[in-house]
Amino acid sequence: LQALGINVKLAFSTVFFLGGLAAGVGGVLIAGYSGGVSPYFSGTWLIYGFIVVVVGGMGSLGGSALAALLIGISRQYVNYYAPGLGDFVVVILLALVLIFRPQGLLGKVSH
């Protein structure tokens, strides 16, 4: 990038700042939604985030957004008709994606 006239240190610092800002905003939103943060904070949100990224496809922002919608809607739908089975459906969706499309919904095939 430096050969193209781009200040690499500034670009790196900007991307690092934006990533930290996004993580901070996400933390504030989750803390507000869950009612607070403690050392005993549940790892459920982290697990759901991991599942969304795997189902959507590594490196695919659109795939992660699609997976978040698919997982969230299907989980709520199943919990409405069969309370307690929503998490089971999320795991089934994860397993189906890993079996039939290991790169994720919108992930690129790597050779």
Structure notes:
It is a single chain. Helix 2 (44-56) packs across helix 3 and helix 3 crosses helix 4. The chain has 111 residues and is mainly α. It has two domains: 1-41; 42-111, no CATH class. It starts with 7 loop residues before the first helix and ends in an 11-residue tail after the last helix. It has four helices and no strands. It is flat, with a radius of gyration of 18 Å.
What's this entry about, in short?
With 111 residues, the chain is mainly alpha-helical. It is built from four helices and no strands.
Furnish the topology, listing elements before pairings.
Layout: H1 8-34, H2 44-56, H3 61-81, H4 86-100
Helix pairs in contact: 2-3, 3-4
The pLDDT mean sits at 87
What structural class do the secondary elements suggest? mainly alpha
- Helix amount, in percent? 55-70%
Beta content comes to under 5%
Q: Which regions have little confidence, pLDDT < 50, spanning 5+ residues?
A: none
How would you characterize the largest beta sheet?
A: none
Number of strands: 0
Give the termini separation: 26 Å
General shape = flat
SSE string, helices as H and strands as E = HHHH
Describe this protein with a few key phrases.
111 residues, mainly alpha
